[in-house]
Amino acid sequence: MKHIEKLAAIRSLMKERNIQAYIIPSSDPHISEYLPERYKCIAWTSGFTGSAGTLVITQDFAGLWTDARYFVQAAEQLQDTGFDLVKLVVQGAAEYATYLSTVLQAGDTVAFDGNLASLLVAKAVQEVLTPLDIRVDGQQDLLGPLWEGRPALPQGAAYLLPENITGQDTASKLAAVRAQLAAARVEQHIISSLDDLAWLFNIRGTDVPCNPVVLGFAQITAHEAVLYIELSKLSEAAIAELKGYGVRVASYETIYADVAGFKAGTSVLLDPKRTCYALYSLVPSEVQLVERINPSTVLKGVKNAVEIAHTRKTMIYDGVALTKFFKWLTENIGKEAMSEVSIAEKLRGFRAVQPGFVDVSFDTIAGYLDHGALPHYHALPEHEYQLAPKGLLLVDSGGQYQTGTTDITRVISLGELTEEEKADYTIVLKGTIEGSQAIFPRGSKGYQIDAITRRPIWETLRNYGHGTGHGVGFFLNVHEGPQVFNAAAIDVAIEKGMITSIEPGLYREGAHGIRIENLVLAEDFAESQFGSFMHFETLTLCYIATDLVEKSLLEQKHIDWLNTYNNWVYAQLSPYLDAEEAAWLAAQTVAI
């Protein structure tokens, strides 16, 4: 069935059920960013494959609301589907609710599947539409009856990580969560988000591509912890180990009945951003709801000493793989066939032989020429470019290792470099360096790092349409909260032990894209009479190309940082390279 036929079928079902507008979020019952095949509802409905967006369907209009990262990709993928691109002004905002308020009448019904919408999103829609006497129904699954051959839930095995990897056992993590529940005077807690679940129970799986998580829920009280999971995924030994930590394992689907059975007069903490509306709607009205961020999300964001030590070692493994990859690429461009897809596979191969490698941490973005201007570009054989000895190549990639998660972006010139490309590259590099060198008061928020990083880019009247940085998990999701470096990040303080990306960019549609990304660790810096100050330790180990640098655009402090960084990269990686590879890296890291 073509996408335009699916749209017609959805509209027919809407008429049968007297629904005037239908909303399809990009999500699942765990409010995940990256989804199991069963929940790739937007891709099935419209053909759009980006990781962020919302479809809204009425009888007269069908649109995809998404942000600047996906404008070009969405415009291409939505052709002839019946869906139009609607460009979000504010990333992540429910701007479609405002649109619906202008086209619907009092008495109309807006519906969605509560398993695919967070409580936060549902409330945002209700706040706009309910005062207009527009009914909001979160109990309508219109795709289920239409989706023939819909993929089943994944059945891959799950496993537990040992304490020498995680640095903290499940019992102590549960104790930390319970301490926060007690402080909030809350008796029970529901967890739906898969990375919180993975961290809390030191459990990993293969249910979501690139994210080593397993589908499940959890309920925690002062005396009991329940892990809801498909029982066949865990070995008897793993179940016994969890039992030793005071964790009872129950069937995945029984969470719904248990939540519906909460006793009147009790209280429950749930995270409105990370809990689906369907689960929330089952909580009895006599139960007090406490809506706040999952305690585990904050605890997980601050890495312990063992996790940090493992991450530093993992950066060496990843840096070795990247060095071998870029050496191969630059020495063989024009001599053998290369495409955006084939080089991504080649890079995976270099990573796969490193110690502890499990998977890539996201689909590699290999954007050549104007494809580099698509921040979340994903090459497919039908539209990929073949590489040639000219133009810029952007490679954004990462690995999942049992000892850490990596995420790095580099841009290299394949030949015939232009002055505009050099200037753009240097200005973005200047932003990366400014963010990396930042010294800031304890308690600073993500929006402040975002502005510090953008300042040298803004000064040239340039800008980019995505955030400056995101938290990164420890052998977990490559995008992790609670911290993020963007203009909206005004609530969460940067804490010692948080690992975050710094990745400014610049994108000229139809020409080229540039992004230079490292991961940094927040650490204490110094005390003064004006308070406590923090800074960042750069963790990522991969040379930054200097042949694209227009030195006259840099101040001496930027030149010193770049030279020091590249020298450090060589010192850290060369012992793990053969003589030819070390000599090649030495040439790439010569001071400018």
Automatic annotation (TrEMBL):
Residues 311-522 form the Peptidase M24 domain. Gene3D superfamilies: Creatinase/methionine aminopeptidase superfamily, Creatinase/prolidase N-terminal domain. One of its GO terms (molecular function) is metalloaminopeptidase activity. One of its GO terms (cellular component) is cytoplasm. Residues 533-591 form the Peptidase M24 C-terminal domain. Keywords: Aminopeptidase, Hydrolase, Metal-binding, Protease. Residues 7-129 form the Creatinase N-terminal domain. InterPro entries: Creatin/AminoP/Spt16_N, Creatinase/aminopeptidase-like, Creatinase_N, Pept_M24, Pept_M24B, Peptidase_M24_C, X-Pro_aminopeptidase_P. It comes from the Bacteria. The keyword Protease applies. PANTHER family: XAA-PRO AMINOPEPTIDASE 1 (PTHR43763). Belongs to the peptidase M24B family. This is Aminopeptidase P family protein. It comes from Rhinopithecimicrobium faecis. The lineage of its organism: Bacteria, Pseudomonadati, Bacteroidota, Sphingobacteriia, Sphingobacteriales.
